[in-house]
Design a protein that fits this description.
The protein has about 210 residues and is an alpha/beta fold. It is built from ten helices and seven strands. Helix 1 packs across helix 2, helix 1 runs parallel beside helix 5 and helix 3 runs parallel beside helix 4. The radius of gyration is 16 Å and the shape is globular. The structure holds the ligand Nc1ncnc2c1ncn2CCCCCNC(=O)c1cc(-c2ccc(F)cc2)cc(O)c1O and magnesium ion (MG).
């Protein structure tokens, strides 16, 4: 039945991007997904907000929940200072295979560690496996009904510290109402909504940035 959508995205990168050039990988995916076929990357509009928050935090340790094809993984990793690590967690093995190739094509494999499996199982293993004490930055982009349980899990595992920044995709579309309720009514978070649009469309969506106060 031919190639999968992630495989078609990888092909577009291999055809149109320059090896070792993350910006050209980002541009190739955005062009393909805007003009050929939609895909659930954070995209170029919300991507600019993601970039600005990553640059503001300048994280030494970062976590991404929901890798998909690695588009936001490349966006984040390309901005990380030398010696920093981005851990990205992907549930779907086929997506993980494609994401590894796209991350490597961008030349960012030394900054990125991809873990395969459900976030709820893997988060408790991160400290021991990678010797990470806490995350400076977390990008939530996986199952929207996992945003709250995984945020609570990060708190319980001691993976958040005073000042850790959480940035959540899709809080409007498809929507993460319980998550918005959780961070907006929780004295332990300072939270702010960044309006934008659903990737490659005119549909309203946005990112919620929440600072953990410890
Ligand atoms: N480590 C882990 N643990 C648990 N689940 C895990 C996981 N790793 C992956 N997953 C499983 C996530 C599957 C993808 C999540 N993202 C989404 O579902 C998503 C959907 C849309 C969308 C919007 C409008 C539409 F009409 C249709 C779709 C847009 C987005 O930007 C999205 O991020
Ligand atoms: Mg998303």
């Amino acid at each position: 039945t031919g190639l999968s959508r992630p495989q078609r995205i990888l092909k577009a990168v291999q055809k149109n991007a320059k090896k070792g050039d993350p910006q050209s990988v980002i541009a190739a995916i955005d062009h393909y997904c805007r003009h050929k076929e939609w895909a659930m990357n954070v995209g170029d509009d919300k991507g600019l907000i993601l970039d600005s928050v990553v640059m503001e935090v300048n994280p030494s340790s970062a976590l991404e929940l929901g890798t998909y094809c690695g588009y936001s993984t490349v966006r984040i990793a390309r901005l990380l200072p030398a010696g920093s690590t981005l851990i990205t967690v992907e549930f779907n093995p086929h997506c993980a295979v494609i994401a590894r190739q796209i991350i490597a094509y961008a030349g960012l494999q030394d900054k990125v560690k991809l873990m395969e499996g459900p976030s709820g199982d893997l988060i408790p293993k991160i400290k021991e496996q990678f010797g990470i004490t806490s995350f400076d930055f977390v990008f939530l982009d996986h199952w929207k009904d996992r945003y709250v349980p995984d945020t609570k899990l990060l708190e319980e595992c001691g993976l958040l510290r005073k000042g850790s920044v959480l940035l959540a995709d899709n809080v409007i579309c498809p929507g993460a109402p319980e998550y918005l309720e959780y961070v907006r009514n929780n004295p332990r978070y300072e939270t702010r909504y960044f309006p934008s649009n659903l990737e490659y469309t005119k549909v309203e969506d946005g990112l919620e940035k929440s600072v953990f106060l410890g």
